[in-house]
Amino acid sequence: MDTWLVIGLGNPGTTYAGNRHNVGAMVVDELVRRSGANLRAHKSRARAAEIRLGTLPGGVPGPKAVVAVPSTYMNESGGPVAGLMQFFKVPAERLIVVHDELDIDFAQLRLKRGGGEGGHNGLRSITRSTGTKDYLRVRVGIGRPPGRMDPAAYVLKDFSSSERPELDFLLPDAADAVEQLVHVGLTAAQNVIHAR
Fold this sequence. Notes:
Layout: E1 4-8, H1 23-35, E2 40-42, E3 46-52, E4 55-56, E5 60-61, E6 64-70, H2 78-88, E7 95-101, E8 109-113, H3 121-130, E9 136-141, H4 151-155, H5 164-184, H6 186-193
Parallel strand pairs: 1-6, 1-7, 7-9
Antiparallel strand pairs: 2-3, 3-6, 4-5, 8-9
Helix pairs in contact: 1-5, 2-3, 5-6
C-alpha cells in the first residue's frame, strides 16, 4: 500500500505553539491524537509518526501515512520535508502540506494541488527543496490582519479569545479534509470540504 506524507507547518517551541502560523502543526497533532500514536524525533529534522489515516468502509484502516512537523523554523521547512520524502520513498503527488492561509477567511478550508506560495515562507522552502510546486495543500484560513497590522506580525500572534473556541471545530474539520484527500482524491474532497 502506498504511503502518504502529511506535513503540518509551524515554528518549533512553546513560544510559537498557539500562533496562527502553527495551525498546520495543530492539525497534525489532531491526526496523531486520533490514531493514538506519538510524534517522535526523526533524523530528517522533524517529529514524525507512522499512522493509518481514518477508516474505510467496513471498518478497514485507512491508507498508511507518515505525519510530521518539521523541527526547524518555518522558512527552513523544505529540508526536513525533502528528507522525509526520500526516507519513506514518498513521491510529490502523495505529499500533503497543511498550512495557514491569510487569503482565506478564518475557519474556512480550501484544498488544492500546486500553485503559488502567496508569500508563505514554509511553502516557498518546500518548493525550493523538493523542486516542485505540484503537491497537495490543505489551506487553513486565518483571515487578514486587522487595520494596518503587518501580516508577518499577525501570523506570529496567538489566536484571539474569540477565535480559540472555533479551533475545537476547525482542527477536526481540517484533519477530516486530510483524510478525505487520501480516501477519495482531490476533486471529490473539494466537493465535500468546500461546500461546508
